Amino acid sequence: MDNKKLLGKRIKELRKRKNFTQEKLAEIIGVEPASICNIENGYNYPSFQNLEKILCVLEVSFIDVFNFEQHKELSDLKSEIIKMLELNPEKIQDTYKIVKALIE
């Protein structure tokens, strides 16, 4: 997935965490709702000024918004988890408990 789409997905995810609609976010930062829609769908990058406003309203940092780890392919995520557990076998039981609690 290209960076424009990843950035859009991340902004959408962070917006939803704040329980903002696209319209509300657009109103707060002073753009048209279609602009937010186009950013979130990966059609456009936000201008630097608008990105700063979005980050301020969503109360996140540049690092937070460009953290795309959760959008890796499932096979890559599984491989990384296995490697982490192989390097830290003492954490397997704790990891199991956390995963089980998340799923149940």
Structure characterization notes:
The protein is built from seven helices and no strands. The model has no long low-confidence stretch (mean pLDDT about 90). The protein is mainly α. The chain folds into two domains: about 5-70, lambda repressor-like DNA-binding domains (434 Repressor (Amino-terminal Domain)); about 70-104. The protein is elongated. The relative contact order is 0.13.
Topology at a glance:
Elements: H1 3-17, H2 22-29, H3 33-40, H4 48-58, H5 62-65, H6 74-87, H7 92-103
**Number of continuous helical runs:** 7
Number of strands: 0
The top-level CATH class of the largest domain is Mainly Alpha
Helix content: 55-70%
Termini separation comes to 31 Å
The value of Rg in angstroms is: 17 Å
The run of helices and strands is HHHHHHH
* Mean residue pLDDT: 91
Find the structural class using helix and strand composition.
Answer: mainly alpha
Tell me, briefly, the overall form.
Answer: elongated
CATH topology of the largest domain: 434 Repressor (Amino-terminal Domain)
Give the low-pLDDT segments.
Answer: none
- Architecture of the largest domain, according to CATH? Orthogonal Bundle
Question: How many structural domains are formed by the residues?
Answer: 2
CATH superfamily (homologous) name of the largest domain: lambda repressor-like DNA-binding domains
Described by strand count, sense and barrel closure, the largest sheet is: none
